[in-house]
Structure formats: C-alpha cells, structure tokens
Specification:
The protein is built from five helices and five strands, in the order αααββαβββα. The protein has 214 residues and is of the alpha+beta class. The strands form two sheets. Strands 3-4-5 form a three-stranded antiparallel sheet. Strands 1-2 form a two-stranded antiparallel sheet.
C-alpha cells in the first residue's frame, strides 16, 4: 500500500496483462486490468493476492516465459517462426532471477507446489486457488485451480499454465489438482524435446557406493 498506484499498474501492464497478446487467435480476450486512476485503496490491496483483475492462460504463460527469459518478453506466435522475434526487456535480469528462485522454492519439498515436481529437473512455479467470478461478484463455493511454471529452472525452455475451471469432488486447491497435471505434461514435453536433466540430487534414502579397487 506504500507504493504509488501507478507502480504496480506499470509492472502488470509491461507483462501484457489487460491487453491482447498479439497471437491473432480469433476471439482472444484481453483480460481486465483497470487503469490505476480508477483504483480505490481496496483495489490495490486485493491486487496483491490476485483479485480485482482477470488474465487469460496465454497472458499468464507469456508472463512466466518472460521471467524464465531473464526479464525479456518475446512476441507470441501460434505458428513456428523461421527467425527468433525481437524481444523487449520488461524487468531487470536480477529481478527475474530473484523471482525464479522464489518460484523454485514453491516446488520444493515444503512448498505448496511440490506435486508439480519432475524427477531429474529443477522446476519453478506457483499454485493458484481463486474464487470463481460470477455475475454479481465472487462465488465463495466455486473455484479456479491453477499451476503456472517454468522448466528447467537452470536454463528455462518451457512455460506451462494449467487451469482447472470449477473443480468438483472436494479438492479445489491448485497445488492438489493442477500441479500434478503440470508435472505429467512437462515431463512428457521435456522428453519429447530431448531437454537434458538439470537436477542430479540423489533420491532421499539412497547412499553413494564407493568404487572398488581392481
């Protein structure tokens, strides 16, 4: 709350929230990020934990890709390009690195996103559990569960967003529902793309065998 309202608005805008991604996909939504001049104090407070704005999965994936690219945002294309498009810097490389480290801790053994882990790889990401927006406000008994992440964390190649809309059956947390889906999708993608592992920590409970002399 001590920040000028234009500061968080500027950062969110630079990440591409509240405007079309430029993918050219028919009917794409721009999401919703109201101008800071329309914010009340409560608007700025709720933004800190993800309410008061709406984003598309594609916008979220682009934002995570920028973090994985060291703060550089690349244009989105649904078609394979012959040349790498020109990127623009939206945050400092040091900032992106610090955020990536925080996101990696989320997938650690004590993190809420531990079920997003992929054996042999360092994964960075964040769980999301939000009330679903319905006419008149947020429904306190309907949810959107999500997990957004980057792999591998050492040298990112993939940004993946998993969204489960209106889950039923009891569980509704992103770490319980979306994170395992992320793990399976990313595990398969890493294998298909032949991306080498970057996490060589021995599994818990194993011991290193000493080499025998001939």
């Amino acid at each position: 709350m001590s920040l000028p309202a234009e500061t968080p608005y500027d950062v969110l805008s630079r990440f591409g929230l509240g405007r079309l991604s430029g993918s050219g996909f028919p009917g794409e939504s721009s999401g919703l990020l109201s101008h800071f001049s329309n914010w009340r104090p409560v608007s700025q407070a709720t933004l800190a934990y993800g309410y008061g704005l709406s984003v598309t999965p594609l916008q979220l994936a682009q934002a995570y890709a920028a973090i994985g690219s060291g703060g550089l945002q690349h244009p989105i294309s649904l078609l394979r390009l012959d040349q790498t498009p020109i990127a623009r810097r939206i945050i400092k490389a040091e900032t992106a690195s610090a955020v990536l480290s925080m996101l990696e801790a989320v997938v650690g053994v004590d993190g809420t996103g531990r079920r997003a882990a992929v054996a042999g790889y360092r994964i960075a990401g964040k769980t999301g559990t939000a009330w679903k927006y319905v006419p008149g406000g947020y429904a306190e008994d309907r949810y959107i569960a999500s997990f957004s992440g980057i792999a591998p964390a050492t040298r990112p190649r993939l940004a993946v967003v998993v969204v489960i809309d209106d889950p039923t059956g009891g569980d509704y947390y992103g770490g319980e529902l979306a994170a395992p889906v992320f793990s399976r999708v990313v595990e398969g993608a890493l294998r298909i793309l032949a991306i080498p592992p970057d996490n060589f920590v021995r599994p818990s409970g194993t011991t290193k065998l000493a080499a025998r002399r001939p």
